[in-house]
Amino acid sequence: GSHVIVSYEGLIARDEEGNFRQTHCILYDVTERKRAEEALQKAHDELELRVAERTAEAEARAQDLLRANAQLEREITEHKQAEEEIKAQKKFTDNVIDSLPDTFYIFDPESGEGIQWNRTLNEISGYSYEEMSQYPPSHFYPPEEHQLIEEVVKTTLENGRATVELNYIIADGTRIPFEYSTVLIKNAEGKPCICAIGRDITERKRVEGALEKANAELELRVEKRTAELAAANEQLQRDITQRK
Length: 244
Description:
Residues 33-92 form a coiled coil. By secondary structure, the chain is an alpha+beta fold. It has helices at residues 31-78, 83-99, 119-125, 129-133, 146-159, 202-243; strands at residues 6-14, 20-29, 103-107, 114-117, 161-169, 175-186, 192-200. Helices cover 55% and strands 24% of the residues.
């Protein structure tokens, strides 16, 4: 009493006068294929939704944290008597930034100098704080992506934000795919800086690759079935001819 999803191909054979003689049909059980396609698509959609939600959350947290840092800097100048308390608050903010699961990096778009980054970036990259401070942002990406980085910086300066996928090169030379959301901010002196929040999208790329592979395999199976059907049709035609 169970149901299966099938596809079928058929051929109607007629005699010399055009009268119906017989049909030749081939049924294919595609239930598992449909289930696999639906499962892969569902996984892909859920992952895209999680990525979008996490990106929005990270951007909101970054803006809140940056505003908090700016406020702290102003208070240090205006209220020397509260210096110790402010330092404690700043330390808390830095600890929150360090606890973010995504990479957090602020740099000067004019000089390319890194200004602030979180511990997550050090841990993922394999570079120490001292090593990170010696290199401009472009050092951590392949040469073929440098032009794209320049375009993203320009877009961020003009529009206030941008999104881009880049391959981050960690200390051992491994390339990790990241999706970055950049936001234009200003430091205490009003100078423009860029905050880049990056997320490792290795798993998303794996799911996309699996989906592409499944689609490619499906295409091959369809081609194979089509060829089999064509061969069967040719054989049927020969059989009909021989019976005449």
